[in-house]
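Q: How would the C-alpha cells look for this protein?
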Amino acid sequence: MPRFLPVLVLIGASALFGQEIKSTELSNYEVLSEALANKSVPGLIVLDVRTPEEYAAGHIPGAVNLPLDRVFYEFPSKSATAPLLVYGRPASSDARKAADILRTRGYRNVILFGSISQWKGDLQ
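A: Here is the predicted structure in C-alpha cell form.
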C-alpha cells in the first residue's frame, strides 16, 4: 500500500492544478465568467474605465468603476501582482490606455479584457 501513496499524491496534485485558472486566460469571456461565478481567482479586480453614466447603465458583475482620466491619479505606483482586469467602451482604446498606465505604474498582472461588448453574460 505505501508504494501507491506517491501515485495518489501526484493524481491529487494534478487534479488541483487542472482546476487552476491562469490570470492570462481571463481575457476570454468563458474563463472570466467562470472565475467570477466561482470566485476562483484570488484578489481579482475587474476595472471598468468607462464613464460613471456608462457604468450605471450596466457593467460586468463586481466591476469597479474608475474612468480612464482618473486611473493615473487613483492607482498609486507600486509593485502589485494581484490580477487586474481592465475593460472599457466598444470601439475605443480607453481600456488599452488604462492597462498601459497601470503597467507603467508597476502593476505586473494587468489583463486587457477589451470592450464591454465582449461580455456575453448579464450586466449588473
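Confidence is low (pLDDT under 50) at residues 1-19.

DSSP finds five helices and four strands in the chain.

Upvote if useful.
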